[in-house]
Amino acid sequence: MDFNLSIPAKVLSGNGVVLKNTALFSSLGKRCLIVTGGKSAVLSGALDDVTAALTQEHITYSVFDRIGPNPLLSACHAAGTLAREEGAAFLIGIGGGSALDAAKAAAVYAANADFAPEDIYTKPRKSVLPFLLIGTTAGTGSEVGKVSVLTNDSTGRKKSISGDDLYPVLTFADPRYTASMPYAVTVSTALDALSHALEGYCSPKCGDIPSLFAEKAVALLWDGLTRLEATHALPDTNEREALYYGSLYAGITLAYCGTGFPHPLGYVLTENFGTPHGFACAAFLPEFMQRAAIYSPKRCEKILSAMGTDLDSFSKTVRALTELGDIYMTCEEVKTQCTRWDAAIPNNFKFSPGGFTKELAQELLLEMLTNIDNPTCL
Q1: Do the Cβ atoms of 261 and 194 come closer than 8 Å?
Q2: Most buried of 137, 158, 295, 375 (most Cβ within 10 A)?
Q3: CATH number for region 182-377
Q4: DSSP letter string over 92-109?
Q5: Where are the beta strands (DSSP E) in the chain?
Q6: pTM
Q7: What is the CA radius of gyration of the chain?
Q8: Tens of pLDDT along 199-245?
């Protein structure tokens, strides 16, 4: 048993939490930059609540709303440059995972004027501008995590940065903001959260504390996902709340343990076919859990029990929720994609059940994406 515990993010939760705590904004400074995407911050009502709070506290603000899905380094760099030029004392990220991850990166660029966009991957950062996060989806967990996943403009590939300095100084968690999500986004983000919980739980890095968070997360998330699969209807208020808090519990497991091979393999689908992140990662969850059943059978059985399901039912439901459509690659295209793992095996592979290799990744991608049974292709 262990009780290793570190959760640097301060989280305040509940309906109306932003407007109930306006004084906390003043503690961060008198000027800020809000970093968002194009829609969710507005449709959710979160942007209106934040700007009302800032106005009440006499804080000057600007809005950078050019963050797209899978945030580009260039957009994050532009946001950070604007924050620095305007003398912002802090940032506020509002939105789904893309906007929240972008706010983290913008905070790095704002405090490191000498950084070109790609330097964020290689140069040590001197400091990070303080930032506050408000999520509008139930999936990313970025509100309580220390990771930012960014897309390199020049390669089109996703790569993450992380560190304790990328925890927000404050997170406002209001499940009402997730009510504007349409059905497909609701499913995709919930699958993303489920991936965080399961991939983290089945990692050899997962100790007692993150295990508790994961077990709590999957119980909330799986109930919601099975209802979504059965009804194809939007969740009600209580179901939205359960999915949202499930995503936060999963986010804490993610912060401790990282992810397994479904995430880097999912990047292949997102980068090449525009598959939403949650669907892309969850497409590999059945195979991931099958390996967990072989290499970590007791933990696999325990987490499935927490979900109230078995491996066959789990796989059937996840596959039904992650129908990928007409996605196809040639053998050579798959092999080219796998060259990203030539230089080094990522931790996502090392900490998957039984370990994972480039060869296994290639075999799985060939099986899923080429739709052929051709040994010479391997």
Answers
A1: no
A2: 137
A3: 1.20.1090.10
A4: EEEESHHHHHHHHHHHHH
A5: 11-13, 31-36, 60-64, 90-95, 131-135, 147-151, 158-162, 170-173
A6: 0.94
A7: 20
A8: 999 999 999 999 999 999 999 999 999 999 999 999 999 999 999 99
